[in-house]
Amino acid sequence: MFFDAKRYDLAKVGRYKYNKKLGLSNRIAGVVAAEDVIHPETGEILAEKGQKIDRTLASDIENAGVEYIYAYALDKEKEDQVTKVIGNNFVDLKHYVDFDITGLKVADKVFYPVLKEILAAASSEEELKEMLVERKNDLSPKHIIVEDIIASISYILNLNYGIGTIDDIDHLGNRRLRTVGELLQNQFRIGLARMERVVKERMTTQDIDVTTPQALMNIRPVTAAIKEFFGSSQLSQFMDQNNPLAELTHKRRLSALGPGGLSRERAGFEVRDVHHSHYGRMCPIETPEGPNIGLIGSLTTYGVINQYGFIETPYRVVDKETHRVTDEIHYLTADEEEMMVVAQANEPLTEDGHFANAKVASRGEHGEIALMPREQIDYMDVSPKQVVSVATAMIPFLENDDANRALMGSNMQRQAVPLLVTEAPIVGTGMEYKAARDSGVVILAKAAGTVEFVDADTIIIRRDDNNERDVYKLLKFKRSNQGTCINQRPIVSNGEHIDEGEVIADGPSTDLGEIALGKNLLIGFMTWEGYNYEDAIILNERLLMDDVLTSLHIEEYESEARDTKLGPEEITRDIPNVGDDALKDLDEEGIIRIGAEVNSSDILVGKVTPKGETELTAEERLLRAIFGEKAREVRDTSLRVPHGETGIVVDVKVFCRENGDELPPGVNKLVRCYIATKRKINVGDKMAGRHGNKGVISRILPEEDMPFLENGQPLQVMLNPLGVPSRMNVGQVLEVHLGLAAKKKGWYISTPVFDGATEKDIIGLLDECGYPRTGKLKLRDGRTGEYFDNPVTVGYMYMLKLHHLVDDKIHARSTGPYSLVTQQPLGGKAQFGGQRFGEMEVWALEAYGAAYTLQEILTVKSDDIVGRVKTYEAIVKGENIPKPGIPESFKVLIKEMQALGLDVKVLSENDEEIEIKESSEYDDDPRNLESIMDFETEIESEEQMLNSGFSEENADEDDFDADFGQQDDFEEDDFREE
Length: 978
What we know:
By secondary structure, the protein is of the alpha+beta class. It contains 26 helices and 48 strands. The strands form 15 sheets. Strands 9, 10, 11, 12, 13, 14 and 15 form a seven-stranded mixed beta sheet that branches. Strands 28-42-29-41-40-45 form a six-stranded mixed beta barrel. Strand 40 and strand 41 (694-701) form a beta hairpin. The two termini are 60 Å apart.
């Protein structure tokens, strides 16, 4: 099995890892030779007995084709014992040929016996190249060979003598990335294998002389495999398009979940933990909170993926002779870095590039940090921010924040909503421009030229090189996947000269080509009447009036007309039992007009569905006979605005088969409506800074009540000072101080992570601006005009409005759908559900002694069908509310116990059996049954049960990232019985 390429394929990466682990060079570096090592071809002595073999010599021994050496044990207890170290006999091809092998697509390490044969047989360089390509599968076998097995056994035996290492499964040298291309290739391979099987079967059954290739081939298995990969793979995700940073981060995400990976339940602590090999490859900060912590990561700013799927990070080379730091860059994988000593990026250098200090802070073997003599340094970091991901590199003063809060900060930046008017941060990190360009939301000039024409949706540039015109079309008010608004605005003017690659149009959340997720607000750390208890935020009403924190949201609703068993559905303006007032904004086809203002339960698309023929009365039969018209038996299934939604219709798209649009089978017409809403900031909205300092708005005060500075300028935001000390995110305080000084100077400051402004710099700047060194200013109370007792820390903080908006979460239910099995109201806003009155709430009413309230909640307000109908009637008629009956869930419980074979009876106090009727048996009074059946009932899908809270795991609202922010798709449809 191991030697059959079809059954067992090592792939490129498998052979690479085998050669790295079993090759002599990595195993004998640092050992002492117990016998002379002799070149197998020339007979010269490569290493004498008793000589310590260094890394260079080890490489020379391996490349000479030496199969084994004898060495003294490295284990202190067995120092005088000798062991035989056997390699797998692979050598570096570059050692044997003097031409460039990159174009030949032959592996670097090749099997020596085969190479020897080729070298002996080839007479010219051209012939040698041909033979190398021809026999590349022999030179680098795709399966295990006998030499590999012998070398593996030798490795295990050598471990007893202290030669060799035991692998760490969490080391990034042993974990590789499977990129999209590889995953798709695997799916494609599965599809081809299935197709091959079908072809072979048909070839055995059909007549060879008559049949054609078309008759044998069926491409469906291949297309199905690819569709399945893009449609339902755990790794094919709905893009997180909240803002440009969210989009960029989602594309740079690394996951240990998914097919061929771990599952959340089985992943232990070690897999999730930060490992020293993550340095410069995987961000130690950015990972979701919750069940996926540590399983989902983010690629660092400088990390790249090599041909084998290992992450490499760049280092500056230190010249071994002169000990000077050069500008040459080497990309190293985690296991290559293990052997090296690397200095940190902000280690001071002299003018000619030597280390200024004799001892240099650096990382040695296994990531140990120590002061090393400068002569021992091999490499130097390229940048202090190479440790972190893009989102984390956008947090100023990251080095002053606790890691847990920095994690929240980098995750919450991805949830920021694009605002109506964007504003770049006063205190940035220098990453904003690069992130905006690379996210792809801004438009870049393809070539240098002069702007000829510009308006809101087109920019025309005449190129300098060939005088042709480049036309750039801008996206206007499109809906993103998250319902935020994508809108591009030109930032160039007529006649302006543009360079190649320059930003010519801003996108959502960008300001002059820089990412701008929030606003610079004047904040004070102070309490105000207890309104900022528990991280609550107090805002100035002026922010609401001036639309400073207003965002635009676009929702999409669709309605499709299908073929049903009783006839086709019809999109029409003629809807039964609907007044003219409800139809005022519909056109003649029954579709809402663009520009109409709509509120909840307004009709967007009028649609009727056939009901099926009913028995006709004598009068109707007479009318039918006279007018010959079929009685129109239809019901109203129009698309309406969901409860709680409102806005203006900005776009309507109609697709139908007649126009040649591609529609799913059974659908004749599809209408999509887009409704835009302006969301002003509101009490209950969530806001946050960049340091994990999040809070909910508790009060919006009139401008005149806000505390104000001595120059009369009122604060825009008040934050609780208690949000800083225990959270240990002091970065926000430094940001506020620096923001205050920078605003006065009119500067925009870039303070990169781990290499930014120091406390000394900030104090110097405050002095320069004439502010106290503490950064605290005297404030006066807006209500009385008196000074507050103590000065307050005031300054500018960059604050984000997050996509947890109160308008989307607030919910109230009147009469709504009930679950068909338990007859209890459904749960969750999406189902127009009720609030769950759970076990602990029942205890509260029991403890309070509110017996009748409790009985009502468990019966007539929930699942006592007859009781709730009678109660409703009693309220309408003004009578006393009757006694409650038996809840439906109690009947379900008894039925379940009876299904288990238990003889359960319900007895009264006098031990008499109480007969429990089914709802349908209450037909003494026919009105009862009619009113029972009037209620809308619904079979709960698994998703609704989860939303109702009937599951063991209750998903946390904030855990957007559970599985990359994707909810599992439940296959059950929601069945409705009207």
